[in-house]
Amino acid sequence: MKYSNITLATFLKRPNRFIAEVEIDGCKEIVHVKNTGRCKELLIPGCEVWLTAPGTENRKTKYDLVAVRKNTGVLFNIDSQAPNKVVKEWLKKQDYSKVVPEYTYGDSRIDFYMEKTDESGNTQKYLMEVKGCTLEIDGIGYFPDAPTERGVKHIRELIKAIDDGYHVVLAFVIQMAGVDEVRPYTEMHPDFGVAMEEAREAGVEILFFKCHVEPDLLEIV
Predict the structure, then answer these.
(1) Helix (H) or strand (E) holding 144
(2) If 0-12 CB within 10 Å is exposed, 13-18 middle and 19+ buried, where does residue 83 land?
(3) Model-level pTM?
(4) d(CA 180, CA 140)
(5) I need a labelling partner for 106 at 20 to 30 A (CA). Which of 46, 54, 79, 112 fits?
(6) Of 79, 94, 100, which is closest to residue 207 (Cα–Cα)?
(7) Given 3-state DSSP classes, what are the helix, strand and coil percentages for the chain, each rounded to the nearest 5?
């Protein structure tokens, strides 16, 4: 996934979870933050951030903040819409005969439904829920960085789908380099850790997608 335009800025402050104040070429600008998570360890005053300008009419802000360089020097993509986009690109390169985004199952909307035909000609059904990981502690990725009852609900739906004959996948897109795995951040949301362990025991496949990150690029490697 590549952004069509990118602008370097300096982060100043984040008044709320939706907006940030940055400096571009000596001028202050209010921008939209494309991640409602806390990102406190990333968005530190003075750090480098990268913005895109979607060009949408009647927007309150010209720019979206999509990437940040952590004080360790590592570049993070923090665009919460990016994980689904890069997974969709990746799925199209696999041997699925059908890929359907935003698939309704039970009381939830699961990120992807896929189909694949096996050697016997039978149609295999898949469900995949995608989570983006932007929290890194000592070289390990963690999720979530804010409580997510919705995330717990989706995992419960995935567990139920196994009994309905689906192959079920919980995928984490690691939005920074140098991290190989994602663990539940139980200090932030203990129930997510419980649900993730139940998913493992029930047979949900858990995938970690390592990514190559540039200011204007995120791709699964």
Answers:
(1) none
(2) buried
(3) 0.94
(4) 7
(5) 79
(6) 94
(7) 20, 45, 40
Report which residue type is found at 150: R
Percentage of the chain beyond pLDDT 70 is 100
Closest CA to 216 of 29, 39, 46, 1: 1
Sheet holding 108-117, edge to edge: 98-105, 108-117, 123-133, 167-174, 205-209
Q: What is the pLDDT of residues 161-172, one digit of tens each?
A: 999 999 999 999
Residue with tokens 């190989």: 180
**88-136, pLDDT tens digit by residue?**
999 999 999 999 999 999 888 999 999 998 888 889 999 999 999 999 9
The answer to whether 131 and 151 have CB atoms below 8 angstroms apart is yes
Mean pLDDT of the chain: 95
d(CA 50, CA 52): 7
Q: In what order do the strands lie in the sheet with 182-184?
A: 135-137, 140-143, 182-184
Token pair recorded at residue 145:
């960085």
